[in-house]
Amino acid sequence: MKVICVSGVPGTGKTTLSRKLAAKLDYFYLDVNRFISEHKISSGYDKKRKTEIIDIVKLNKALIKEIKNNKKMKGIIIDSHLSHYLPRKYVNFCVITKCAIKELNKRLKKKCFGKNKIKENLQAEIFDVCYNEAIGKKHKIIVADTTKDFNMFDLSKKLSG
Ligand SMILES: Nc1ncnc2c1ncn2[C@@H]1O[C@H](COP(=O)(O)OP(=O)(O)OP(=O)(O)O)[C@@H](O)[C@H]1O
Ligand SMILES: [Mg+2]
């Protein structure tokens, strides 16, 4: 079974890309936000940062269990800005979605994120936080620029090959 994690800063197009990829490759699509609430992984809500507090060790444990339980599947696409924290040995490819800052700003405004949250996420994108963390985990990385429509054919070929 192929395991593909799709990570990137909020608004850079993880869900859009993951769903298209899962449909194209006939892989199982795993929405980590839903998984977190179904498995009660959140350990509270950070009011200031307006985000759930997630224990990565706990999340990874649950995701690894899910991967092992679905070994018979053709593949799984794990959609989350936390998915690149998975240990390298469980992951075939890590796709990092990226987006031009001007466009990302527009997208985050459309998502009705507050000023601070927008600033925080734009900075994370400028400093390539997800990409650098994925490098730190030694993942096999493919960068997908979603500023405009991307070539799904090339990407799915790389990932399934
Ligand atoms: N390749 C693309 N071309 C144009 N617009 C895109 C593209 N990918 C995503 N978008 C748009 O960008 C917005 C954010 O996309 P999406 O929800 O997939 O991001 P995300 O990374 O999953 O965000 P979050 O982390 O908040 O879940 C959506 O309005 C979507 O339509
Ligand atoms: Mg999403």
Q: What's the CATH superfamily, by name?
A: P-loop containing nucleotide triphosphate hydrolases
Helix content: 40-55%
Any idea what the shape is? globular
Query: Reading side by side through the largest sheet, how are the strands ordered?
Result: 2-5-1-6-7
Tally of structural domains: 1
Major beta sheet, specifics? 5 strands, parallel
Mean pLDDT over the residues: 96
Distance between the termini: 13 Å
Order of helices and strands: EHEHEEHEEHHHEH
Helix vs. strand class: alpha/beta
CATH topology, which one?
A: Rossmann fold
Hetero groups bound? Answer: adenosine-5'-triphosphate, magnesium ion
Radius of gyration (CA) equals 15 Å
Please provide the count of β strands.
7
Helix count from the secondary structure assignment: 7
Which regions contain 5 or more consecutive residues with pLDDT less than 50? none
